[in-house]
Each structure stands twice: as structure tokens, then as C-alpha cells.
Amino acid sequence: MIPRRNGEVRDRASPFRSPRGRMMTLSQTPRNTMRPNDFVHLHVHSDFSLLDGNCQISRLVDRCGELGMDAMALTDHGNLFGSINFYKAARKAGIKPILGMEGYLANGSRFDRKRVAKGKNTYHITLLVKNQIGFRNLIKLSSAAYLEGFYYRPRMDKELLRQWSEGLICLSGCLSGELIQTIRREGMEAGKRVIAEYKEIFGPENYYIELMHNGLEIQFEANRALIELSQSTNTPIAATNDVHYIKPEDHEAQDVLLCIGTGKLKSEEKRFKMDSRSLYLRDAAEMGELFKATPAALANTREIADRCELEVPFNQRFLPRFETPGGEDSQVYFERLCREGIARLYPEPTEEVWKRLAYETDTIVSMGFVDYFLIVADFIRYAEENGVPVGPGRGSAAGSIVAYALGITKLDPLKYDLLFERFLNAERISMPDIDIDFCKDGRQKVIEYVEEKYGHDNVAQIITFGTMAAKGVLRDVGRVLDIPLSEIDAIAKKIPAGPGVTLNKSLAQDVELRELSQATPERKELFETALKIEGCARHASVHAAGVVITDAPLTERVPLYKNGDTITTQWTMDIIEEVGLLKMDFLGLRTLTIIDKARRNVLRTKGLDIDPNALPLDDPATFKLFQAADTIGVFQLESGGMRELLKKLRPDSFEDIIAVLALYRPGPLGSGMHEMYCKRKHGEEKVVYPHPILEPILEESYGVILYQEQVMRIAAALAGFSLNEADSLRKAMGKKKPEILAKFKKKFVDGAAEKDVDNAVATEVWEQIEYFAGYGFNKSHSAAYALVTYQTAWFKANHPIEYMAALLSCEMISIDKTVEYIETCREMGIEILPPDVNHSYFEFAVEGSAIRYALGAIRGAGQSVIELLTQERDEEGKPFTSLFDLTERIDTRMLNKGVLESLIHAGALDSLPGNRAQKLAALEDALRQGHDAQEDKRSGQMSLFGEDDLEDTSSGSEVSELPDKPELPEAERLQLEKAALGFYISGHPLNEFRQEITRFATHETAALEHCVDNSEVIVGGIIRSVRLMLTRRGKFQGKRMAFVKLEDFSGTVDCVIFASVYADVADQIKADRILFFRGEVDKGRSSPSVKVNEVIPLGDARRTLTRRLTIKVPCTDEDTEHLDLTLASLKRMLKENPGRVPVAFELDRPRFGRIILRAGNEFAVDPNERFFGQLESLLGPQSVACN
Predict the structure, then answer these.
(1) What 3-state DSSP class applies to 1061?
(2) In this model, does residue 1151 exceed pLDDT 80?
(3) H-helix or E-strand containing 1032?
């Protein structure tokens, strides 16, 4: 009899007794009569053993069921990432889940970061959960391993094991376990001491020697020693298979996964790989055959499984308590704050307001969410009081008048008919979900406040996992198989973009892709491997917004993970909510930072202190901007498609902006809802309502069911649903489950009949809302974000310089965005002044009616040195007078050679004496002189009479004259300028060709992101780089193709010239050539590129690309004789230059206005240089326009 830790006793047979108690020897070989449930897998890795395990949990559980097994463990490497997902999936499949972990055990203290003298630094140990206590202890062990013991891997130590061993079963581990490593290093006696120590830690009844049969000679030798130790120490054995993939044929895919994780090619010999090919989910018969000499090892797996009885509770809530001022009852405090908010927001509250407030507060109180609302309101109050801008609302919370009264949202839900039930449904109990947008720069400040208020042990951010999606997995596998990047890119681009896209779906839908996947053995391997690992977790990172706040230390509720310096949960956001923890979304929204900077700019330049949340929502200038689609830089309205929609819709009310945001989504666009809305708004199509009851509900959207709230209103008005029932209907329609919808349809039609609505009409309305519900958008979210959209548009329309300066400051980390917005400024007539150490600041600044370029936007110039420079300049009130003055006044340990070179190249020192070449030549002397002067100051070598008596010698030092050097050649100067700024500011190598490029290019490179994939474009510019490659297969195998970087005034674009085109234009594809490319936009990668079909030299552009010539003919109403002579000369010139381009004449006559006359086809011309010269001699410059 062996005593158990809790005082119970139980029988246990010898480790080599059969389940029936008959002693067996190693030489006996019983007949394999294994049943599926006689063996349980206790050592299994899912894909949450990142880039090591290739068992996605759903497939793992399915396979376990196929094998007829009724229990299985999950033991991922060092973490509990997938534990709850596994628990739920297994339970759903009728399989008993055993939670566990293959932990990493430090050889010594977990705090030791040194390599040990001999032996392994880290051992492996298999831990399994018996009960709730064991699960809590495993959570603590895994958390401490990450937070305290991380050194290459999350390591626990024996101190932690002793502290948190209760409720756990320990297996001795694989070949990397301490037992095997000690036997190999020190022998059997040392192995006995290891066993004794683990029995002392876990209790003798909770420690098993782990046996594996993986085909490795070293394992075979280890097993003999382990069996001998088991007999000599009376320690039970347990059979495992260290499962890393599901089926034998998955071994190669798992090997590729390892290569992805280690950055190696599969073909490399010297790399980490698993020598065993048998680490799959074997069935019980296979395991019985392997362990037929030691049946107790199999029987003990069943015994262990039976001892593991964990129930994970999902019906609990662990909400933190809010400490009210003075200890006031939280409900009383909550209701008082709500009343005070109503009094502030509604000077004369109506009965409707009070009734809505009473309904919402009653619901919130009854559901137990008072503290939740107080917590959210509190940290929003903190943010606003501490200068952190907060968004006006996000998501369905904007439909709550309580949220409005508490200052959580800034939009009146009654005014815009937003529904509380869309946010909180009393009939469908779930945690409320209030997502908060904060200024991106201040978000962390608010999180730190929450950590301080509720305790660092009670607050953490939430983990998220990147998975191997269809395009990405092809690229990953392609790299490991050493397939050329260009080939992989070409294949990956055939996979559609968007959520829910899989390789299987893509192959099923695309015949060409299917054929391509089978074209060669290499392609087959690529796709077969990618299909096997697609969907696997690839890496862990920090969720962009999620924060969890608990009522107790986090490790009592959830395992923790450390990502750099950030502590996160090991469970994802959905799991956090399911186990009853409070999850909040603290989102960082850069647009709020832009609005706040614009507000500060206006205050600084005009003395106006503008509250963005108090703007009039009917400003004419703002709606003029909307109607002109002048929305580059306006929140959510920048894309080409959105601007086209604005032109069609011509918004004239705030409600139209709400609608625009709801309409511009794939569903409504695909169904034509946007066209219907626009036509009905402008009277081009009749507005029809299926029933008069629906008119008040659908009037705002011209009879189109645009919002989810409208579906709810229709169900309530037409069929007598409560709004809570209507919300359940909305949710059911989103899930599209036929059996549930059938019940709702009956209730809808029956309810309509009670209101005397004809059955046919009710059915028609049901069909309409069922159709539109798939496209309907959350109006609360659309309204809240429409307010942010309106605020950005208002600032752009009313304070354009201040707004664009703020926009540029917030986007200066992106060169492409900076270039785009500077071009927008120029189109708006806003001058961009060059960077200048005597006028610029770290950010873009308003200077009169212009914007001064930011020093912080210069590459190589960090924020600390720039702020030191501007502080010195402003505090002293003295501009810098020379390069030498600058180096003497600014600490050269920060203002080093690299920073100064960047400033010079960018032109930031152009206002100081000397040209750029002179300053670059004097740099070493200036830095040496500045360093010496600063050293003298630091060492106290001052005048005996004190610093005030000294003459100012800062610019009169030993070497203060610049060497005599001519300015850099323009091409070199511009290239260095671009290297520092990312683009040209003082000039451009294309300036003299600007007219041709803007005339013939259909798109600037910066505008390609707004183009439809595969649409034809013409881009023009200068070639910056050319990379040649050989085509590896196909018709043009061995022929050259080119990858070209083309630059225009707005930025650069990558262009691909395939061998079929390159062969004819190779002599033109050279660096610094100015060309036009006609081709197709390819949006398969992170930034668009162009597949080139035609190359057009600049000199041929007019002839090749001109579709029509418009000739401007000067004329007056009086001098008709001169006009006749001019037209006769033109007719003769046209006849002398026959060609294919049609001609039109533009006459601007005061009496008749602008007249366009199209010439007949017989006057079509060849638009060559000689002909243009003749026209301009006759009519003057700028008289010809090419279209």
C-alpha cells in the first residue's frame, strides 16, 4: 500500500505487473490484444509548440477520435497557449482532455543565466494536471518560467516544483530529461538519486519513468537503463510517443516547420532536425506492439488518465471591484454619476431621456456590471485629465445613454436612434464590450494608470498568434525549399487576398492554380507541404488593444507570457472572456493624435482653443470638402473607391457620413446598395417601403436596410419583437444557421399577423431583412467613427495648414505617406519650407502661411539630439550662426558626424554660411573644435573673472573658415538629399520633364495603392535600380528578366519586366533612364507593383501615348479675319503631318464662351516634335494639350 499525499491509500502493482496482477518478465511476449482505450497518449505537441509541433488542435482531436481513443493529453513546450482550446475541442468530441506541459527545467537555479560547466543547461520534464489545484499550480509554474526563468527558453527550477507540485503528475521526460541525461553522464546510482528527488517533490505515487520507442539507438539504450532503474527503485513506467505530427506522412512537413523556425534550408546538412520519423499519433495497436515486453507501461497510461479529473469552469466571472471615493456603495455612486451626466448633457431632459436612463441602469445593475462601467469611466476620466485624447466612441457602446452620461462616449444615442440592446442584451448574458480609442502616443500612459490602480499583478496585456495563412505559408515553404523568390511571389499572387482564404479553397476555385501546383515535382512538394502546415500558429505577439484586469493576482487565473519587456497572458482574448475574466480593448488610434496636434497648432497660431467634440455638424466648408472628395488625409475617406463614392453621394448631412462608412464595405458594394442609396438620395430612383410601418425606420436611408439597428427596429415594429429578442434575431442572421432562422421566421410572421400585416407582406419583409442583414452594419460604430471622420475633415477644411502640419507630423515615420501628403499640400497651395536648424522643430510646424519641414523626418536624426538642438536655440534666443557655432553649442557626443551629415545632406544647414560641399569638407574640423570647447566647459577652464566677463567666442574659434569648394553637382546633391529625406525637396531630376510625365502617366506611383488589382496603368519616371535574373523554367528558361525600381514625383514602385518583354527593350533598361511603363497593377504583396507589358522611351511618349490633341486657338469676337487665317494655317499644318491622333480645337470667345470643335478623321496627325514646334510658333507656348 502506498500512502497518497491527501492521506488516502491505494493499491499499486509492481511496475511490471500486468493489469490482472500477473508478474511479467522482459522475455515474455504477450499476444497484442490492445483495445483503443487501453492506451492514452500523454506526451503530445500541438502547433502551439511554435514551429515545432505540426498538430493543429482540431485535426489532433479528430484523429484521436478516428483511432477510437477516449482520452489524450496536450503537453506543449513550456506553455499553456493551447490548453483551453484543446480542452473545449476534446470535450466537444467526447474525448477526455488531460492538460499538461513539457516544461523546461533549469539545471540549477532559474535565475542563473550562465552556461553550466558540463551537461545540459535545461532539461525537459512532462507534467500532467490531475485536478483544479494542479491546473492552478501548472499555471503558476509556466508563468514563473517566463517571468523569472527565461533564458532562451521559459525555465522553471526545482524550487518552484517543490512549491507548486500538488495536483500534478510528473513523467521523467524524453531523451533531454534529467533522468536520462544524468544516467548517461554519471551512471545508474546518480539516476537513482534523481528518481528519489522527484518522488520527494511530487510524491512517489505521482512520478513515472517515461519510456519511448522512437527508433533511435540512443533511446533503445536509454530504455534498458530506465527499465532497470524502474525495477530497482519500484518506480512505475509510462509509455509515450512524443507526438509532433498526426500521421507518418506528415514527418516531412514537420521538418519544414523546423526549418522555418530556425531559418534554414531543408537541403542544409548541418541543421537541427528530428532523426526519428515516428513521432506521430500512433494507434493503440501500434503502441501495444512496440511495448509488448512492458505492458505495464501501456496500462499505466490508462491509470494516469483515469486519475486526471480536471473540470475547467466557464460559467464564472472574476470582475474587479471599483473603489469609490469615501467608500460609497458602488451602485449608489454609479447612479449618481449617471444623473449628473444627464444634467450636464441635456439642459432640459425629456421624459424619454429619463426613461431610457432608468431602463439602462436597471439592466446594468441586474446583470452585475456596475463596477465594469465605473472602471471604464474612471480611466477615461484619467486620460482626459492628463492630456490623452480619447475617441468619441467605438462599436455598439455608442448606443448606451449610460455610457454617454458617464463620459465613455461622446455621441447622443437618442439623436441618432442608436440602440442599447445592440450593446447589452439582458436576455443573452455575456460580458459587455466597450472598446476605447486613445491617442496612440498616450495609450501606454493609460495602461500604466490602470496597472497602478489595480496592481501590476492584476493587469496584463493579451497575447495573439500569427498563423500561417495561404500566401504566407507558400512563401515560408518556398524559402525552405530554396525556390526562387520571384517564382514564389508569382504563385502567391494568384491566391486571393482577404480573410478566410485558404489554399484548398483557392485550388478548388482556380483551374490555372491547380495546374500550376502540379506542374513539376518541386511545385507538388511546395503545395503538399504548405497544405499540411497552413493554419499553424507561427509566432506569439502582443494584441494591439487587449488588456485584462483581474480581481486577484493574474497567476491565480491565467498563465502569463513575456514578450520582450511586455507581460501578456498566454491565452487569447476569446479564451480570457470565456474563463470569466474582464477584457478591455485599449486601442491606439493615430487619428486622435492628428486631431489633437491640429488643435494645438490652431491654438498656437490663431489663439483659438477648439474642442473637437463640440464642433457644429453642419459646417458648409466641411461638406464642400466632402462633396469635392477632397479627402486625402481625412479619416477613413482616403481611398480612391471611397472618394468615388463621395462624388456620387454628395453628402450634405452628418447622417450621410454615417451612411458612407456603412456603405463602403465589400457586401454593400457587391450588392449595389451604394448605387441604390445614391440614386434614391438624388431622386433618380423612387424610394419604396414594403409596408407603411417601416417608413419611419428606413426613411433616413431612403428605404435601404443599411444598419443592423434597422433590422432590430423592423422586427419590433412589424412583428412585435422586444428589442432584446430583435438583437438575438440580428445575431442569428449573422450566423446564418437555417434551423435557428426557421424558428425566428415563424415568430416574425406570426407576430406580424397579430398586427394585421398580410402574410405575403411579412414574408417579403423577412426575406428583405434576411438578405440585407448579411450586409447591415453596426450603426453605433459607424456613427461614432463618422464623428472622428467629420472632425478631421472640419480641421482640413477650416484650418488646412495647421491640419496638414499635424498630419505630416504623425505620418513622418512613413516616407511614402510623407511624400503623398506633401504633394497634397502643394495641390492645396500650401508651401513646404525646407528643413532648417534655425527654424525647424522635431515635428512639422506652421510658419506663417507655410509648413516648415520637420528635422525629425530626416533619416539619422534622432528625437533626443533634435530636441537638444531646438532647446538650445530657443532658450538662448540665438540662432546658430555657422557650422562651427552649432558644434560648439550642441554636445557632439549626440550631434555626431552621422547626424550632421544627414542634416547637411537634407539642406537643414543651408541657411548657415557655405554650400553643402564646404560644410561636408569642414565636418571633421568642426566636430573636433566643438568637442574641445565642450571639454573645456566641462572641466571648468573658465576665466578667473567668471563666465559673464568672457567675450562670446563661439564663432571666432581657431578654425572658423570653410574650405573653398564648389557646390556638389546637382545630381549628387539631389541623391544625397533624397537619401536623407526619402525624397527631393530642393529640386527633382525629373523637373524638366514634369509636363510630359504628368501628361502621359495615368497614375502617380503613390496612387497605385488605390487601383484595382490587374488594372492597366501607365507610370513614368526615372529608373533608380535594375536587378537582372535568369528565368528558371518555362518557355523563356535561361533568359533574362528585370526587376526595376521606378521613381516619379510621388515616390517609387517596383516593376517586373518578364523575359518576353525584356528581350526587346534590354538596351533601354538602364539606371537613370527616363521611361514610361505600360502594365498591370499587382497588389499581391504588401505594396503594389507593376507587371510591365510595354516600355516607352520619353522621346516616343507623345507619339505612342497621345490619344487626342487639343489645340487652343486664341480669338476675339471682333477679329474674325485673323481667326480665319489662323484656322487656314492650322489646316495646312495638319495635312502636312498626317497620322492616327484625332484633333480638337478649343476656342474661348467672350460672347459664346468656351467652344470645342472636333476635326474630322482626315485631320488626324502624327504628334512629333517638329509638328509641336510649328504649332507653338503659330499659336504661342502652352497652346497644345495632349490627352
Answers:
(1) helix
(2) no
(3) none
SS3 145: helix
1053 is a domain residue: yes
pLDDT tens readout for residues 511-561: 888 888 888 888 899 999 999 999 999 999 999 889 999 989 999 999 999
Q: What is the CA radius of gyration of the chain?
A: 37
Residue 292 DSSP code = T
In this structure, is the dihedral angle defined by the CA atoms of residues 701, 703, 704 and 707, taken in order, positive or negative?
positive
Let me know: does 973 contact 967? Beta carbons within 8 Å: yes
996 and 864 in a common domain: no
Of 763, 792, 821, which closes a domain? 792
**Same domain as 1120, residue 1095:** no
Listed in order, strand segments (DSSP E) in 186-256 are 207-211, 237-239
The domain of 344 spans 325-457+581-588
Three-class SS state of 95 = coil
Is there a contact between 1120 and 1086 (Cβ–Cβ < 8 Å)? no
Q: Are residues 923 and 843 in the same domain?
A: yes
Three-point CA angle 220, 262, 481, nearest 5°: 95
Contact 967/917 with Cβ under 8 angstroms?
yes
Res. 1181 pLDDT band, cuts 50 70 90: low
- Decide if 933 is inside a domain: yes
Same-domain pairing of 297 and 341: no
Per DSSP, 418 falls in state -
pLDDT digits (tens, 9 = 90+) for 212-224: 999 999 999 999 9
DSSP states of 696-741: HHHGGGTT---BHHHHHHHHHHHH---HHHHHHHHHHHHHT-HHHH
List CB contacts of 1178: < 8 A, sequence separation 6 or more. Answer: 1126, 1129, 1130, 1133
Regarding whether 113 and 130 lie in a shared domain, the answer is: yes
Q: Which residues contact 718 (CB under 8 A, 6 or more apart)?
A: 691, 693, 694, 748, 751, 752, 755, 757, 762, 765
CATH number of the domain that 1027 lies in? 2.40.50.140
Q: Would you put residue 966 in left (φ > 0), alpha (ψ -120 to 50) or beta? A: beta
For 696, residues 6+ apart whose C-beta sits below 8 A from its C-beta are: none
**Statement to judge: residues 285 and 431 lie in one domain:** no
Calculate the alpha carbon distances from 776 to 24, 283, 709 in Å. 70, 49, 8
pTM of the model: 0.80
Residue 956 burial by Cβ neighbours in a 10 Å radius (0-12, 13-18, 19+) = exposed
| Whether 1096 and 1133 share a structural domain | no
C-alpha 546/C-alpha 783 separation (Å) is 23
Cα 280 from Cα 900, distance rounded (Å): 60
Q: What is the pLDDT of residue 14?
A: 35
| The C-alpha cell that represents 673 in the structure block | 446598395
In a domain, 251, yes or no: no
Cα four-point dihedral sign 473, 474, 480, 485: negative
Please state, in angstroms and rounded to a whole number, the distance separating the CA atoms of residues 858 and 338: 49
Nearest to 157 by CA among 174, 185, 178, 136: 178
* Structural domain total, the chain: 6
CATH of the domain at 180: 3.20.20.140
- Residue owning grid cell 466571472: 317
What span, in angstroms and rounded, lies between the C-alpha atoms of 184 and 812? 59
| Residue ending a domain, choose from 532, 553, 588 | 588
> CA 930, CA 872: separation in Å to the nearest integer?
15
Question: Is 1167 within 8 Å of 1102 (Cβ atoms)?
Answer: yes
Per-residue pLDDT of 348-386, as tens digits, reads 999 999 999 999 999 999 999 999 999 999 999 999 999
Quote the CA–CA distance of 34 and 40 in Å, as a whole number.
12
Q: How far apart (Å, rounded) are the C-alpha atoms in residues 665 and 787? A: 18
Domain-embedded: residue 25:
no
